[in-house]
Amino acid sequence: MIKKKRVLSAILAISMLLSTGKTIFALENNVQDNTASKNHNDLRLWYDSPAEDSYNGWEKWSLPIGNGYMGASIFGGVEYERVQLNEKTLWSGGPSERRSDYSGGNIASNGTVKVNGIDVPIMKAIQDAYARGDTDTANSLCNKLTGVSDDAGTKGYGYYLS
After folding, report:
1. Contact 161, 85 (CB under 8 A)
2. Strands across the sheet containing 83-87
3. What pLDDT digit, counting tens, does each position of 24-83 carry?
4. Distance CA 10, CA 131 (A)
5. Which end is more exposed in the chain, N or C (fewer Cβ atoms within 10 Å of the end residue's Cβ)?
């Protein structure tokens, strides 16, 4: 009787060892598969350097996040991180019945500019300059139309983005 118990317990012990061995090997393979899939994820974004810290760097290099109501542009970096916020209630423009004199920030008296001695509508001159790739002239003409921007200076939220 004791001999039967020992044989039975030995058989059970061996069968348990064999069944757990398969589980251990399966777990090791699963861990390797997960690591491989993390390193080869098609949706993963990887950058070697942060976005350019230039005036229009946000247009080309920053990563936009948000939902339309509130958002940010992430520029990346380890030592220095730059986040540019955008929140719709901070916008203060737009025509309305209460603001009949609203000009969109444009200077009304600067509607034309002289090009080769001829008065040309300033918007046409700006468009032509951009079409030629002459961004310096186009930017200069834009400043004549709206005045030089200082990121809203101390009058608005834009000052804190700089």
Report:
1. yes
2. 63-66, 70-74, 83-87
3. 555 555 555 555 555 677 788 888 888 887 777 777 888 888 887 788 888 888 788 888
4. 87
5. N
Cα(151)–Cα(55) distance, rounded to whole angstroms?
Answer: 11
**pLDDT digit string (tens) for 111-157?**
777 777 777 888 888 899 999 999 999 888 887 776 655 544 444 55
The owner of tokens 């916008």 is: 91
Element (H, E) at 14: helix 2-39
Terminal Cα distance for the chain, rounded: 88
H/E element, 32? helix 2-39
CA separation for the pair 88, 137 (Å, rounded): 31
Amino acid at 42: D
**Domain regions of the chain by residue span:** 1-42, 57-92+104-161
pTM of the model: 0.36
How would DSSP label each residue in 42-108?
TT----SSPPP-STTHHHHT-EEEE-SSEEEEE---SSS--EEEEEGGG-----BTTBTT--TT--T
